[in-house]
């Protein structure tokens, strides 16, 4: 037992050193990344499961690091949150996405809905709503087409979320709860907030259609969304059988590699259809 403990400790300290090194690389790099324009926004299509039409786009951040290569947001967003850079980065993502969305609209292309991820920490900053208001005014992107994706963890503070969401809704912006099913929010809390959409986390979708637990969970979430009058999107759809199962539940929207990977703005533009002014 002692040996295992000692190995465990050594392993742990080695890992800690690794993590500290990585954190320093990321933290120092993040400061430069903004100035040197190393960030990119990709856009992943969402599809109406009934007719396969494009129903929305999710803006996803990428960091092209000069020496470390492409770094996943799953790695650097938590660091940006901890060192207080998330507000600045998040604001840049939203401005970039809204500018791009408005540019597509001006070109006569259809942008059904544009979703931007917002971290809880960012949303809780005191001037968050003012910043969204300013970006909408500055870019001219229609508020009704902007959706903000926030994780369930925000629901922990219901009073605060209610005030915040109410102000965002007053702007015309829509609100989606991301990664739904992975947090511990109670369903009754969900009911008391003005939420437009629930996104089923991809871990449940990926276990479809074989895993019984995931099948039941997806079924429950789709029914829940239905009865609360919320839209529902299943993320991470990779196979036809996953898609078919979700369609059989009458889940209305899907996102995942089966439809498209996240794309650069120029690549995506080739997939947008002209407005139909009927
Ligand atoms: P998310 O919001 O849940 O975004 C969906 C993630 O799933 C994206 O990963 C997307 O590329 C990936 N994905 C889409 N379809 C599939 C599929 O069929 N299979 C699999 N395995 N994955 C799929 P990505 O782009 O690496 O982003 C990871 C996370 O980083 C996001 O998860 C989101 O939480 C966060 N993130 C990304 N961009 C931003 C941002 O601008 N701001 C903030 N605060 N967070 C962001
Ligand atoms: Ca998301
Ligand atoms: Ca998600
Ligand atoms: Ca996720």
TrEMBL record:
It comes from the Bacteria. Transmembrane segments: none annotated. Residues 23-276 form the EAL domain. This is cyclic-guanylate-specific phosphodiesterase. It comes from Aeromonas lusitana. The chain holds residues 311 to 588 of 590 of the full protein.
């Amino acid at each position: 037992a002692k040996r295992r403990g000692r190995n465990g400790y050594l392993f742990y300290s080695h890992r800690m050193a690794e993590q500290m090194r990585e954190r320093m690389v990321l933290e120092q790099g993040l400061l430069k990344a903004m100035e040197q324009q190393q960030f990119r926004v990709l856009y992943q299509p969402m599809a109406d499961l009934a007719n396969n039409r494009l129903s929305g786009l999710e803006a996803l951040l990428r960091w092209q690091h000069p020496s470390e290569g492409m770094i996943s947001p799953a790695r650097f967003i938590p660091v940006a949150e901890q060192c207080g850079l998330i507000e600045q980065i998040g604001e840049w993502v939203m401005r970039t996405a809204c500018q791009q969305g408005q540019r597509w609209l001006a070109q006569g292309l259809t942008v059904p809905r544009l979703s931007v991820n917002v971290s809880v920490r960012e949303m809780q900053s005191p001037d968050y709503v003012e910043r969204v208001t300013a970006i909408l005014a500055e870019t001219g992107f229609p508020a009704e087409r902007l959706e903000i994706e926030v994780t369930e963890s925000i629901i922990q503070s219901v009073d605060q979320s209610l005030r915040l969401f109410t102000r965002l809704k007053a702007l015309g912006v829509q609100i989606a709860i991301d990664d739904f099913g992975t947090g511990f929010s109670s369903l009754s809390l969900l009911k008391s907030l003005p939420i437009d959409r629930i996104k089923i986390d991809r871990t449940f979708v990926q276990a479809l259609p074989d895993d019984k637990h995931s099948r039941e969970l997806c079924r429950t979430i789709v029914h829940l969304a239905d009865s609360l009058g919320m839209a529902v999107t299943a993320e991470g759809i990779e196979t036809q059988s996953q898609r078919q199962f979700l369609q059989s539940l009458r889940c209305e929207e899907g996102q995942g590699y089966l439809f498209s990977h996240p794309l650069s703005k120029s690549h995506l533009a080739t997939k947008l259809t002209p407005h139909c002014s009927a």
